[in-house]
Structure formats: structure tokens, C-alpha cells
Amino acid sequence: MSVNNIMNIAGSAMNAQIVRLNTTASNLANSGVLATTPGEAYRAKKPVFSTILEAQMGNQRDAVGGVRVTGIIDDAKDVKQIYDPGNPLADETGYVWGSNVNTVEEMIEMLDASRNYQNNVEVVSTVKDLMLRTLEITKA
Amino acid sequence: MTIIDNYLGTHSTALTVRNQRLELISRNIANATTPNYRARDIDFAKAVADLSQSSPVRLTDAAHVDGAASNLSTISSLVYRTPLNPSLDNNTVEIGVEQAAFGKAAAEYQASLQFLENRISTLRKAFRGD
């Protein structure tokens, strides 16, 4: 049924945006974390979105045309090398490794995610009103 | 049922198409941040023409597919939107455009609904005879 479909599409998008907000929160929270080796340093997490296509209909809850989070990848940018010999985490040469989180970028991600979430809430509420009116067609 | 179908006229067909259009625009809004997503819309005049021409199909077997029912993939009148400002990730959704289209589509849906309601209330008056 089409109404359900619209609700599912908007719902899948809201879900995807929440995942995005979650990664942003995680990135901002870990932006100041230091590590001894580049491998241990925190790398910004980015969700990857894709459209749910007809052929990919796995279970009943999937809405064709909705959004699916296909994975969460680590940002490939280089982690920061900071010279800080006094730090207990510093290696033998005196360097610590900071995360590659770009705080400004994350703030923008956060705003964009919340705006997109709001757009989808608006879709749900408009469609809900329309369908309630459609149900009342018998009372005309 | 053809008499009532004729009486309700194009409005019941229009309501179906408008519902499909709402779904399509909600897809666009949902995929506003999906890379490589192409925004789509319905060519309304063509969609109504297609739906009105198709003869009412009777389903006599469980395996039959209701072609006219709201299945977007069977519609030939889908068109891609041309973006005003192309974006780097090949996404052609422009949220302002989509919001405007969605608002308009919702208003048009209400208009079709109002026409249908008026027809139905007239019909009821005729039945009651008062």
C-alpha cells in the first residue's frame, strides 16, 4: 500500500540520518583522543548511504526508494602527528598521534543530518494528514 | 460499476497518480544525501492518460499482477529532474525544489480529494432523495 510505502521511505531516511548523527557524535567525542601509534589513533567514522532498489528487497520492512546504510567507513585522511615528549602516550621519539576528525566538518554534518531528519518528519506529518482526510471521504 | 466510475470521472484516476507522485517526491527527499541518487518526478499528463487508457483488468488468479495499482516501477511516465546546480557526488536532489514540489503535490492531492468528496456527497443526496 502506497501510504505505508511513503511512511517506510521517510522512516528509512530518518533512520539513516540518526546513524549519521551517531557517527558525528562519536567523532566529536573522540576528536581529542591521542594514541602512541598511527594505527591506534582514532579515525573519523563516515556512514555510506545507498538507495534501496527493487531488486534488493530483502525483508518486508525495506521500502523501495528508501535509504539504507551500507556500511560505516573510516576516514582515509592522515592522522595528526603531534610532538609532545612530556605526554605519557608519547613514543620513543616524542610523538603522539591525534585523530583525523575535522571538527568544523562534523558540525556541518550534524546540522545537515538534523535538517534532513526534519524534512522527513515533515513528509510523514503531511502524508498522515492527507490520509486521515482520505479516510473521511466516506463521511462526505 | 462503470456508471459510478464515469460519474467520479478523472478524479479517482488523478488521486492515484497524485498519490504516486507524493511517494516519488518523498523518495527524493529521503535520498537528499545519498550519493549518485537521481531525483525523479512524474509527467502528470502522461500518467493520467496512461491510467485512463488502460482497460480495467480483472484479477482471476492469485498470480496475476494488478498493473494499474500503485506500482511505481510499471509507470512509463517517470522523468528525471534536471538539477539547477549539479553537485559533486552526482546527487541531483535539490531540497528546496523538492519541498516546493511536495507542498504543491500535497495541495493538489487535497484538491482532487475535495472534488471526489463533492461528487460523493452529491451521489449520496441523490440516493437519499431528500
Note the main attributes of this structure.
heterodimer, A: 140 residues, alpha+beta, two-stranded antiparallel sheet, 18% strand, B: 130 residues, mainly alpha, 4 helices, 55% helix
Helical content of chain A, roughly? 40-55%
Task: Tell me the strand percentage band of chain A.
Answer: 15-25%
Discrete helix count of chain B = 4
Structural class of chain A: alpha+beta
- Silhouette of chain A: elongated
Largest sheet of chain B: 2 strands, antiparallel
Give the total of beta strands of chain B. Answer: 2
Order of helices and strands of chain B: HHEHEH
State the distance separating the first and last CA atoms of chain A: 23 Å
Give the end-to-end Cα distance of chain B, rounded to a whole number of Å. Answer: 24 Å
Spatial shape of chain B: elongated
What is the typical, i.e. mean, pLDDT of chain A?
89
Structural class of chain B: mainly alpha
Strand content of chain B: under 5%
The largest sheet of chain A is: 3 strands, antiparallel
Q: Largest contact between protein chains?
A: A-B, 36 and 31 residues
Poorly predicted runs of chain B are none
Helix-strand string of chain A = HEEEEEH
Round the Cα radius of gyration of chain A to an integer and report it. Answer: 22 Å
What does this structure look like?
The complex is a heterodimer of chains A (140) and B (130). With 140 residues, chain A is an alpha+beta fold. Chain A has two helices and five strands. In chain A, helix 1 packs antiparallel against helix 2. The longest helix of chain A is centred in the last third of the chain and has 33 residues, at 103-135. The relative contact order of chain A is 0.21. The mean pLDDT of chain A is 89. With 130 residues, chain B is mainly alpha-helical. Chain B has one domain. In chain B, helix 2 (10-30) packs across helix 3. The longest helix of chain B is centred in the C-terminal third of the chain and has 34 residues, at 95-128. Chain B is elongated, with a radius of gyration of 18 Å. The model of chain B has no long low-confidence stretch (mean pLDDT 81). Chain A binds chain B through residues 1-3, 5-6, 9-10, 12-13, 16-17, 20, 49-51, 54, 64-67, 112-113, 115-116, 119-120, 122-123, 126-127, 130, 133-134, 137-138, 140, and chain B through 19-20, 22-24, 26-27, 29-35, 37, 70, 72-73, 95, 99, 102, 106, 109-110, 113, 116-118, 120-121, 124.
